[in-house]
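Appendix B, Record 12. Input sequence as logged:
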Amino acid sequence: MNTARPIPSFFSDLEEPIRAELFSVERLEQHAESLAAAQIVTSESGPGRPLLPRVLENGRVLLESYRAIARAIQKEHAITPAAEWLVDNFYIADEQLREIRDDLPLGFYRKLPKLASGHLQGYPRVFGVAWAFVAHADSRFDPEVLHRFVTAYQRVQPLTIGELWAVAITLRIVLVENLRRLAERIVRSRTAREEADMLADSLLGTGGQSLVPQATVLRRFEKTPLATAFAVQLVQRLRDLDPKVRPILLWLDERLAAQGTTADEIVRAEHQRQAAMSVTVRNVITSMRLTSAFDWQEFFESVSLVDEILRNGSNFAEMDFATRDHYRHAIEDLSRGSGYSEIEVAKRAAHRAQRARVEPRGDAQSHEDRQTEPGYYLISQGRLAFERELGFRVSWKSWLLRLYVRAAVPGYLGTIAVMTVMILALPLLHASEAGVTAKGLVLLGLLASVPASDLAIALINRIVTDLVGPRILPRLELRSGVPAHLRTIVVVPTLLTTQHEIEEQVERLEVHYLANPDGDLRFALLSDWMDGPSESLRGDDELLAAAVDGVARLNKRYGPAADVGERFFLFHRRRVWNECEGKWMGWERKRGKLHELNQLLRGSTNTTFIPVGGRPPKPLPGVRYVITLDADTRMLRGAAARLVGTMAHPLNRPRFSPRAGRVVEGYAVVQPRITHSLPTGREGSLFHKIFSGPSGIDPYASAVSDVYQDLFQEGSYTGKGIYDIDAFEAALTGKVRDNTLLSHDLLEGIFARAALATDIELFEEFPSHYQAAAARQHRWARGDWQLLFWILGRGRAALG
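Logged structural output:
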């Protein structure tokens, strides 16, 4: 075999692993403080030195190393414990690389403060923090130690919100970097040992190689320092063998002596190095696995100084994560546009809220004023005044967008009109050039305006939602369920038609409870009998008895509620004579049910509810909200608590204006997103499967397009959602005359001010046949025509 091979690249210098003196926890805290004092960041944000190219290169090197070790295993060659760790757990490193590529967007990286000096100059400051932690912890991830390290660092130099979020990904990057350096050393050491084996085989004439003169072979290594792995493997191969190799051992001792070491020392050092490398590789792999499973959200909020300020000054800790994150993004934005740090912005917002609590106000419920909430100045109406206090600089893009949102109605309608004209312009111009007369152009324009406006609305809605972005309503998390002071009743208005239908409604009420069993929730059926020619019909008592028995079974099965009261209720109304309809029926149907329920909950005895099960209807004390569902609505797990949490947030609490006669701030109604349940198996007809998906913007099918909530900050109420009893009743008192309004939901949402919670979803069934769908559309169209008086501004005149 040809032994005249070039000297392999393992003789070249390699980057040292990220490993320094191993510190105790106390020493790590001291090092974090000294590091914070020493690190200097640049005054301007910018791209800095990119990390992603190095990450991609690390991935390539790790893959090549994995393949090299795998080839050695296939050849049944011995590998080191560190190599075993790497090849057995390479999938973990590959997963880390994918997460880094996905979670490190360029825009986020640009905003991170960069180091102005040092060996990591131009890289993010948090990258240097992660580097120091990995180096002095020997790549071992311990959440408690990391928490103390970051906390000690921030005692000297606070980190920004973005930097604290970046701790996780920069830690992964440093671990991958360290693994790459270790993998290179593993592969290079293996290559060196293979080269030493080939040299020994050529000197001994073993391994299928012919004997080569010693002088010829050793001449190749005269001018190059011997690698440790190469020398150790050669010593182990030649020691205690034939006396003929004695000159080679003497030559090897001389070379090692020239390098300041001996054969025994280099063997001992190599064994120690392999042991240390095995420990570090194991630590890296284990840390990668732990970082993927670790709750970084909890870590962030435990070390965030901004969160600490907001927690001390408000009920910030009681809000859900999306709301807390919304506050933090607002603080980041205000800090970047002003000369204040994030901590200073948070302190000023908390101070404003604190000042609003102590200032004397005419409102008797001043402690519930939304101005006592820091979010009022961060994401709500107090934002503009707060920006002026900070000297906030608004970019020209944000200024234009704010101008459009401020003039939402004329801006939205105007852009739709302009877009419609632009769409019509091209075909009309083409028709004019083709010789169409002026009358023909007018007729063509009128006919084409309908599809052109539909296309224009779709385009404008897409543009608006992309530019404005979704507005998620702030929310309290209610981790332990609905508390007593937010007591809520879930009601399902229904008709008692057949025994089978009543059983289904009782089962659905049970499902609503099983999906939302936590907290102070009550569940009730609001029932009427079918319309009839007389006040009482044959079979009425049997139907009512079936409903009473069903609710009683639920109370027996699931026991009393938190206050030892009943959990399930049935509220049933008698028929009353309707002169306009010419028959006996429930007063005002669904609207009347909810109105009379509200009156009953507030202690009124002047309702049409009748005694059920031998007991007269009695109010439930302390009920603040009502969640109303249709008979076919399905409420998902936890949806009730999320709806209540949304209503209870200080920025969403309704403020009724007696002068305006409606809710002018906050929301008395929150409408969740409604999605049609998909037909499964034989449950759905062909009509159902084809038409159940909403097309375009249908406020009845999918609650309302996000564009209305995002742009106008209000949604359309479609009869399913949660409302504040007192504000709802105050807003609707005297607004609607009996027998004048069938489609009452939209009007209620206007006066009570409805919001669309797009992140809370309920499901309902779609009509399975064309006749049912056509009847529903007819009912909606009839109800919409009844709103014409209100659209024309004559609604109050209609009241007489």
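DSSP finds 32 helices and twelve strands in the chain.
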